[in-house]
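Aim 2 progress update. The chain analyzed this quarter is reproduced below.
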Amino acid sequence: MRVRTPFGIAQVGKSFRNEVTPRNFIYRSREFEQMEMEWFLPADEAKKWFEFWTDARRKWWEAVGVSSSNLQMRAHDKDELVHYAKAGEGTVTLNTAFPSRRPGFGELEGIAHRTDFDLTQHEKHSGKKMEYFDDSVQPPRASFRM
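Predicted structure tokens:
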């Protein structure tokens, strides 16, 4: 690809999950479509891009017709964060007032700052370094971990 950071990769595909949620009378959800986007950037730009994407996603939902009064952005508390999320900039859930959930809100999507968790796991299990050199930073030649 030969692209420079920041850059993103998106994919859409089938996901499979079994769930039991008696409150909503769902006992098994076998298959659904899911979209995911990963955004790669230098670590010192993470806060700026996390704020950008949370704002951009909210604006997108409003642009497709979801009323701003039906949208709620909720930052996860420290004790709710998944193991790969960064505390303080960790995870935001974008919720909406689904008719089946009224008066409450349900999750539309999550936005997470995953840090370099995935790359460090690949390094650990493959034994190969996942670093790169950015030739646009002159001198000295800088090495970044995404």
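Strands lie at 7-16, 31-40, 71-75, 91-96, 106-112, 132-134, 142-144. The first helix runs from residue 46 to 63. These observations will guide the mutagenesis experiments scheduled for the next reporting period.
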